[in-house]
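Exercise 7.
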Amino acid sequence: MPMPEKTPEFWVIALAWLSHHSPTIYAGLASALMAAVRIIYGGGSRRQALLEATICTLLTISLIAVLEYFGLPSSLATPAGIWIGFLGVKKIADLADRFADFKLPRRSD
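Solution. The predicted structure, written as C-alpha cells, is:
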C-alpha cells in the first residue's frame, strides 16, 4: 500500500514541533515521574500517584511561562519540575498560601 504524498511533510512538522517544545515536554515528564515515584515510595496508591503526577505536571508546565516572563531559559524548567514533583502538591500549596498571606493584605471584618 503506497504512502500518501503528504506524509513526509507531516513528520517534518511534527518533529519540528517536538524539537521546539522539548524543554516543556521533558520538564513535565520529569515532574510527573518524580511525583509518582515519591507517592509510590511513601506507600500511596496508584490512583494517588497518578493524580499527584498530573497536578505536578500542570504546575511545571505553568512554570515555563513564568520563566519566559522573567527572561530565564526554559531549560530551568526541568530542575524546577523535578523539585515540584519532589515537594508535592500539598507542600507547594502550603508555600503558595504562606506567600499569599505575606504579600496580599487580608480583608478586615
